[in-house]
Protein backbone atom coordinates (compact mmCIF):
# COMPACT_ATOMS: atom_id res chain seq x y z
CA UNK A 1 0.00 0.00 0.00
CA UNK A 2 1.58 3.29 -1.10
CA UNK A 3 1.48 6.57 0.78
CA UNK A 4 0.58 8.77 -2.17
CA UNK A 5 1.22 12.49 -1.95
CA UNK A 6 -0.15 15.04 -4.42
CA UNK A 7 1.75 17.38 -6.69
CA UNK A 8 1.53 20.70 -4.84
CA UNK A 9 2.29 22.71 -7.97
CA UNK A 10 -0.67 21.12 -9.75
CA UNK A 11 -2.89 21.74 -6.75
CA UNK A 12 -1.83 25.39 -6.62
CA UNK A 13 -2.69 25.65 -10.33
CA UNK A 14 -6.19 24.35 -9.41
CA UNK A 15 -5.79 21.21 -11.49
CA UNK A 16 -9.16 19.52 -11.00
CA UNK A 17 -7.85 16.01 -11.70
CA UNK A 18 -5.17 16.33 -9.02
CA UNK A 19 -7.75 17.65 -6.55
CA UNK A 20 -10.06 14.73 -7.37
CA UNK A 21 -7.18 12.37 -6.60
CA UNK A 22 -6.84 14.16 -3.26
CA UNK A 23 -10.52 13.47 -2.65
CA UNK A 24 -10.16 9.78 -3.44
CA UNK A 25 -7.18 9.36 -1.13
CA UNK A 26 -8.22 11.47 1.83
CA UNK A 27 -12.03 11.60 2.08
CA UNK A 28 -12.29 8.34 4.00
CA UNK A 29 -9.71 9.20 6.62
CA UNK A 30 -11.10 12.72 7.06
CA UNK A 31 -14.59 11.28 7.59
CA UNK A 32 -13.18 8.83 10.11
CA UNK A 33 -11.59 11.68 12.05
CA UNK A 34 -14.76 13.82 12.00
CA UNK A 35 -16.97 10.84 12.91
CA UNK A 36 -15.29 10.61 16.33
CA UNK A 37 -16.58 14.11 17.14
CA UNK A 38 -19.58 14.87 14.95
CA UNK A 39 -22.54 12.49 15.40
CA UNK A 40 -24.66 13.80 12.51
CA UNK A 41 -23.88 12.19 9.15
CA UNK A 42 -24.87 15.22 7.06
CA UNK A 43 -22.83 17.52 9.30
CA UNK A 44 -19.80 15.25 8.88
CA UNK A 45 -20.09 15.55 5.14
CA UNK A 46 -20.33 19.34 5.43
CA UNK A 47 -17.20 19.50 7.59
CA UNK A 48 -15.24 17.40 5.10
CA UNK A 49 -16.44 19.56 2.21
CA UNK A 50 -15.42 22.72 4.08
CA UNK A 51 -12.04 21.13 4.69
CA UNK A 52 -11.41 20.60 0.99
CA UNK A 53 -12.58 24.10 0.10
CA UNK A 54 -10.34 25.53 2.82
CA UNK A 55 -7.44 23.52 1.44
CA UNK A 56 -8.03 24.89 -2.05
CA UNK A 57 -8.22 28.47 -0.80
CA UNK A 58 -5.03 28.15 1.24
CA UNK A 59 -2.90 25.99 -1.05
CA UNK A 60 -0.94 29.02 -2.24
CA UNK A 61 0.47 29.37 1.28
CA UNK A 62 1.28 25.69 1.70
CA UNK A 63 4.35 25.26 3.92
CA UNK A 64 6.52 22.39 2.60
CA UNK A 65 8.01 21.81 6.05
CA UNK A 66 4.84 19.81 6.71
CA UNK A 67 3.27 17.05 4.61
CA UNK A 68 0.09 17.61 2.65
CA UNK A 69 -1.74 15.21 4.96
CA UNK A 70 -0.71 17.34 7.96
CA UNK A 71 -1.94 20.43 6.11
CA UNK A 72 -5.28 18.80 5.30
CA UNK A 73 -5.86 17.34 8.77
CA UNK A 74 -4.99 20.70 10.36
CA UNK A 75 -7.78 22.35 8.38
CA UNK A 76 -10.15 19.49 9.20
CA UNK A 77 -9.44 19.85 12.90
CA UNK A 78 -10.23 23.57 12.77
CA UNK A 79 -13.45 23.03 10.83
CA UNK A 80 -14.52 20.33 13.28
CA UNK A 81 -13.87 22.65 16.22
CA UNK A 82 -15.87 25.38 14.46
CA UNK A 83 -18.82 22.97 14.13
CA UNK A 84 -18.60 21.94 17.77
CA UNK A 85 -18.53 25.56 18.89
CA UNK A 86 -21.60 26.35 16.82
CA UNK A 87 -23.44 23.51 18.52
CA UNK A 88 -22.69 24.91 21.93
CA UNK A 89 -24.42 28.12 20.83
CA UNK A 90 -22.49 30.32 23.19
CA UNK A 91 -24.48 33.45 23.98
CA UNK A 92 -22.54 36.68 24.20
CA UNK A 93 -24.36 39.26 26.27
CA UNK A 94 -24.44 42.78 24.80
CA UNK A 95 -22.31 45.24 26.68
CA UNK A 96 -24.16 47.93 28.59
CA UNK A 97 -23.38 51.58 28.44
CA UNK A 98 -21.63 51.44 31.81
CA UNK A 99 -19.37 48.56 30.84
CA UNK A 100 -15.86 49.64 30.09
CA UNK A 101 -14.17 48.40 26.95
CA UNK A 102 -10.76 46.86 27.56
CA UNK A 103 -8.06 49.46 27.30
CA UNK A 104 -5.68 49.02 24.38
CA UNK A 105 -2.76 50.40 26.29
CA UNK A 106 -1.22 47.72 28.45
CA UNK A 107 -1.78 44.95 25.93
CA UNK A 108 1.79 45.40 24.77
CA UNK A 109 4.94 46.08 26.67
CA UNK A 110 6.69 49.29 25.77
CA UNK A 111 9.36 47.42 23.83
CA UNK A 112 6.79 45.31 21.92
CA UNK A 113 6.49 47.49 18.87
CA UNK A 114 4.85 46.06 15.74
CA UNK A 115 8.25 45.58 14.10
CA UNK A 116 9.60 43.84 17.23
CA UNK A 117 6.59 41.51 17.32
CA UNK A 118 7.00 40.73 13.62
CA UNK A 119 10.67 39.83 14.12
CA UNK A 120 9.84 37.65 17.11
CA UNK A 121 7.05 35.85 15.24
CA UNK A 122 9.32 35.24 12.26
CA UNK A 123 12.02 33.87 14.52
CA UNK A 124 9.61 31.57 16.31
CA UNK A 125 8.18 30.34 12.98
CA UNK A 126 11.69 29.45 11.81
CA UNK A 127 12.36 27.84 15.18
CA UNK A 128 9.24 25.71 14.85
CA UNK A 129 10.30 24.61 11.36
CA UNK A 130 13.78 23.71 12.57
CA UNK A 131 12.47 21.88 15.63
CA UNK A 132 9.96 19.86 13.60
CA UNK A 133 12.69 18.91 11.16
CA UNK A 134 15.21 17.72 13.73
CA UNK A 135 12.58 15.88 15.77
CA UNK A 136 11.45 14.07 12.65
CA UNK A 137 15.05 13.23 11.75
CA UNK A 138 15.69 11.91 15.25
CA UNK A 139 12.55 9.75 15.13
CA UNK A 140 13.59 8.29 11.77
CA UNK A 141 17.10 7.57 13.04
CA UNK A 142 15.77 5.90 16.17
CA UNK A 143 13.26 3.82 14.19
CA UNK A 144 15.96 2.65 11.78
CA UNK A 145 18.19 1.70 14.73
CA UNK A 146 15.37 -0.44 16.10
CA UNK A 147 15.37 1.48 19.40
CA UNK A 148 11.61 1.43 19.83
CA UNK A 149 11.61 1.60 23.62
CA UNK A 150 13.75 4.75 23.45
CA UNK A 151 11.36 6.19 20.88
CA UNK A 152 8.35 5.49 23.10
CA UNK A 153 10.03 7.02 26.13
CA UNK A 154 10.87 10.24 24.31
CA UNK A 155 7.41 10.47 22.75
CA UNK A 156 5.92 10.05 26.23
CA UNK A 157 8.14 12.83 27.62
CA UNK A 158 8.03 15.28 24.72
CA UNK A 159 4.59 14.72 23.20
CA UNK A 160 2.71 13.38 26.21
CA UNK A 161 4.58 15.49 28.78
CA UNK A 162 4.72 12.52 31.12
CA UNK A 163 6.64 12.73 34.36
CA UNK A 164 9.80 10.64 34.74
CA UNK A 165 8.17 8.57 37.48
CA UNK A 166 5.17 7.62 35.34
CA UNK A 167 7.43 6.87 32.38
CA UNK A 168 9.83 4.44 34.06
CA UNK A 169 6.93 2.57 35.63
CA UNK A 170 5.10 2.28 32.29
CA UNK A 171 8.13 0.80 30.53
CA UNK A 172 9.50 -1.20 33.43
CA UNK A 173 12.80 0.68 33.55
CA UNK A 174 15.14 0.55 36.53
CA UNK A 175 14.15 3.91 38.01
CA UNK A 176 13.73 7.58 37.14
CA UNK A 177 17.44 7.98 36.46
CA UNK A 178 17.10 5.57 33.54
CA UNK A 179 14.48 7.87 32.02
CA UNK A 180 16.70 10.90 32.65
CA UNK A 181 19.56 9.14 30.88
CA UNK A 182 17.45 8.39 27.80
CA UNK A 183 16.30 12.01 27.70
CA UNK A 184 19.85 13.33 28.13
CA UNK A 185 21.16 11.29 25.19
CA UNK A 186 18.20 12.29 23.03
CA UNK A 187 18.73 15.98 23.78
CA UNK A 188 22.42 15.68 23.00
CA UNK A 189 21.63 14.19 19.58
CA UNK A 190 18.91 16.77 18.92
CA UNK A 191 21.37 19.58 19.64
CA UNK A 192 23.84 18.03 17.20
CA UNK A 193 21.14 17.89 14.53
CA UNK A 194 20.13 21.48 15.30
CA UNK A 195 23.70 22.77 14.99
CA UNK A 196 24.02 21.04 11.61
CA UNK A 197 20.71 22.50 10.42
CA UNK A 198 21.39 26.00 11.75
CA UNK A 199 25.14 26.61 11.35
CA UNK A 200 24.76 30.38 11.72
CA UNK A 201 22.88 29.96 15.01
CA UNK A 202 20.03 32.20 13.88
CA UNK A 203 17.38 30.31 15.81
CA UNK A 204 19.50 27.92 17.85
CA UNK A 205 19.22 29.93 21.10
CA UNK A 206 15.42 29.87 20.84
CA UNK A 207 15.49 26.14 20.18
CA UNK A 208 17.80 25.58 23.15
CA UNK A 209 15.31 27.36 25.42
CA UNK A 210 12.48 25.15 24.18
CA UNK A 211 14.43 21.92 24.64
CA UNK A 212 15.55 23.03 28.08
CA UNK A 213 11.92 23.62 29.10
CA UNK A 214 12.66 27.21 30.07
CA UNK A 215 9.03 28.13 30.62
CA UNK A 216 8.04 31.68 29.87
CA UNK A 217 11.12 32.53 27.83
CA UNK A 218 9.67 31.33 24.53
CA UNK A 219 6.28 30.35 23.12
CA UNK A 220 7.96 27.59 21.13
CA UNK A 221 6.81 24.35 22.80
CA UNK A 222 8.18 20.93 21.97
CA UNK A 223 4.84 19.20 22.63
CA UNK A 224 2.97 21.49 20.23
CA UNK A 225 5.56 21.13 17.47
CA UNK A 226 5.73 17.35 17.95
CA UNK A 227 1.97 16.92 17.67
CA UNK A 228 1.31 19.50 14.97
CA UNK A 229 4.22 18.20 12.91
CA UNK A 230 3.15 14.58 13.53
CA UNK A 231 6.84 13.79 13.73
CA UNK A 232 6.34 10.23 15.04
CA UNK A 233 3.17 9.20 13.18
CA UNK A 234 3.80 5.91 11.35
CA UNK A 235 3.02 5.84 7.65
CA UNK A 236 -0.36 4.48 6.60
CA UNK A 237 1.08 1.19 5.38
CA UNK A 238 2.60 0.61 8.84
CA UNK A 239 -0.85 1.05 10.36
CA UNK A 240 -2.26 -1.44 7.86
CA UNK A 241 0.44 -3.98 8.69
CA UNK A 242 -0.12 -3.44 12.41
CA UNK A 243 -3.85 -4.04 12.03
CA UNK A 244 -3.09 -7.22 10.12
CA UNK A 245 -0.70 -8.43 12.86
CA UNK A 246 2.13 -8.35 10.32
CA UNK A 247 4.63 -6.27 12.30
CA UNK A 248 7.56 -7.49 14.34
CA UNK A 249 7.40 -6.96 18.10
CA UNK A 250 9.38 -3.69 18.20
CA UNK A 251 7.45 -1.69 15.58
CA UNK A 252 4.19 -3.27 16.76
CA UNK A 253 4.83 -2.12 20.34
CA UNK A 254 5.51 1.42 19.19
CA UNK A 255 2.46 1.64 16.90
CA UNK A 256 0.26 0.27 19.69
CA UNK A 257 1.73 2.80 22.17
CA UNK A 258 1.27 5.63 19.69
CA UNK A 259 -2.36 4.73 19.07
CA UNK A 260 -3.42 3.81 22.59
CA UNK A 261 -1.20 5.58 25.13
CA UNK A 262 -0.62 8.74 23.09
CA UNK A 263 -4.11 8.56 21.55
CA UNK A 264 -2.98 10.03 18.22
CA UNK A 265 -6.24 11.19 16.67
CA UNK A 266 -4.80 11.35 13.15
CA UNK A 267 -3.53 7.77 13.16
CA UNK A 268 -6.73 6.55 14.78
CA UNK A 269 -8.66 8.16 11.92
CA UNK A 270 -6.40 6.50 9.36
CA UNK A 271 -6.90 3.15 11.06
CA UNK A 272 -10.67 3.62 11.18
CA UNK A 273 -10.64 4.39 7.47
CA UNK A 274 -8.54 1.33 6.65
CA UNK A 275 -10.95 -0.90 8.55
CA UNK A 276 -14.05 0.70 7.05
CA UNK A 277 -12.76 0.17 3.52
CA UNK A 278 -12.96 -3.56 4.16
CA UNK A 279 -16.42 -3.41 5.73
CA UNK A 280 -18.66 -1.18 3.64
CA UNK A 281 -18.94 1.32 0.82
CA UNK A 282 -20.09 4.28 2.90
CA UNK A 283 -17.46 6.61 1.50
CA UNK A 284 -18.30 6.21 -2.19
CA UNK A 285 -21.58 8.20 -2.33
CA UNK A 286 -20.10 10.92 -0.10
CA UNK A 287 -16.98 11.03 -2.25
CA UNK A 288 -19.15 11.58 -5.32
CA UNK A 289 -21.12 14.45 -3.78
CA UNK A 290 -18.10 16.16 -2.22
CA UNK A 291 -16.10 15.76 -5.42
CA UNK A 292 -18.80 17.35 -7.56
CA UNK A 293 -19.06 20.29 -5.19
CA UNK A 294 -15.31 20.83 -5.29
CA UNK A 295 -15.24 20.60 -9.09
CA UNK A 296 -17.87 23.31 -9.31
CA UNK A 297 -15.82 25.55 -7.06
CA UNK A 298 -12.58 24.91 -8.99
CA UNK A 299 -14.24 25.66 -12.33
CA UNK A 300 -15.72 28.87 -10.95
CA UNK A 301 -12.18 29.95 -10.05
CA UNK A 302 -10.57 28.98 -13.36
CA UNK A 303 -13.15 30.13 -15.90
CA UNK A 304 -12.38 33.49 -17.52
Please, could you describe this protein's structure?
By secondary structure, the chain is an all-alpha fold. The chain has two domains: 8-89 and 281-302, Rna Polymerase Sigma Factor, Chain: A (Orthogonal Bundle), CATH 1.10.1740; 116-231, no CATH class. The protein has helices at 8-12, 16-35, 41-58, 68-88, 114-144, 148-158, 164-171, 176-197, 204-211, 222-229, 236-243, 249-260, 265-279, 283-302. Helix 2 (16-35) crosses helix 14, helix 5 (114-144) crosses helix 10 and helix 8 runs antiparallel to helix 9. It starts with 7 loop residues before the first helix and ends with a helix. Mean pLDDT is 80; it is low at 90-110 and 214-218.
Tell me the domain tally: 2
* Mean pLDDT score: 80
Strand content is under 5%
> What gyration radius follows from the Cα positions, in whole Å?
22 Å
What summary fits the major beta sheet? none
Unreliable residue runs: 90-110, 214-218
SSE arrangement, N to C: HHHHHHHHHHHHHH
The secondary structure category is: mainly alpha
The N- and C-terminal alpha carbons lie at a distance of 40 Å
Report the strand count: 0
Essential attributes:
304 residues; mainly alpha; Rna Polymerase Sigma Factor, Chain: A; 2 domains; 14 helices; 68% helix
Amino acid sequence: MSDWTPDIARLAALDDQEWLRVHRHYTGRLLAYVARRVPDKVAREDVVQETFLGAIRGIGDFDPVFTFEQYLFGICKNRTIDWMRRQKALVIQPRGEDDEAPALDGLFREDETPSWIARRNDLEHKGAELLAGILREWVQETWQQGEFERLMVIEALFSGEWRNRDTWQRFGLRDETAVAGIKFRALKRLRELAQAADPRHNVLPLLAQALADEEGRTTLRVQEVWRRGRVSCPARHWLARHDGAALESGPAAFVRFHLQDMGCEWCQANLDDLRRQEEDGEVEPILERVGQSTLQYLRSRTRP
